[in-house]
Design a protein that fits this description.
This protein has four helices and seven strands, in the order E-H-H-E-E-E-H-E-E-E-H. It is α+β, with helices and mostly antiparallel strands. The longest helix has 17 residues.
């Protein structure tokens, strides 16, 4: 099992695939500030362009817990306590978690029994986690440091887009 936490700035070059996804993400959110609409489009972009994923979406912080937001894939858990499972742990720690085998992750929540690996990236605004990007795969060890860098770049673009905005 690999669990990687990352809170350092992206300094490595992105792969061609993630450069393309980042450009598409920027284009999708440019000029649009509806939070749910942007998250819906980004979840569709990632789900339809990343190989070997069975879920891509967002959980939003509401009343000190994660609540299901826009996503693509099978039905999902609706509420997750902070500090619980991969999503809750990433949100509480404010760090990306890349997990090769979710069944070996203490406290893993099996929303979809077909999921075997996962990456979760916290989304922060003014130092507070407001949501997480969660992507699951049916394969073990599906996500790499390349995926982490690319997805963190997309999240950083989303954070920058809302830096001076109010999100409901």
């Amino acid at each position: 099992m690999t669990e990687m936490a990352a809170d350092t700035p992206i300094t490595e070059p992105l792969s061609k695939q993630y450069l393309g996804l980042l450009a598409q993400a920027k284009s999708l959110i440019a000029g649009e500030y509806d939070w749910v609409a942007n998250l819906a489009n980004l979840s569709a972009l990632l789900f339809n362009n990343l190989d070997d994923v069975n879920w891509a979406g967002f959980y939003l912080i509401k009343d000190d817990e994660l609540v299901l937001g826009p996503f693509q894939g099978q039905v999902a858990c609706i509420r997750i306590a902070l500090g619980r499972g991969v999503c809750g742990t990433a949100a509480q720690s404010k760090q990306t978690l890349l997990v090769d085998d979710v069944h070996q992750f203490a406290g893993h929540i099996a929303c979809d029994a077909a999921s075997n690996s996962e990456i979760v990236i916290p989304i922060q605004l003014n130092g507070l986690v407001i949501a997480v990007l969660d992507i699951d795969s049916p394969s073990l060890a599906r996500f790499t440091s390349e995926d982490q860098l690319g997805l963190e770049a997309i999240v950083k673009e989303l954070e920058a887009h809302y830096r001076n905005e109010t999100i409901c």
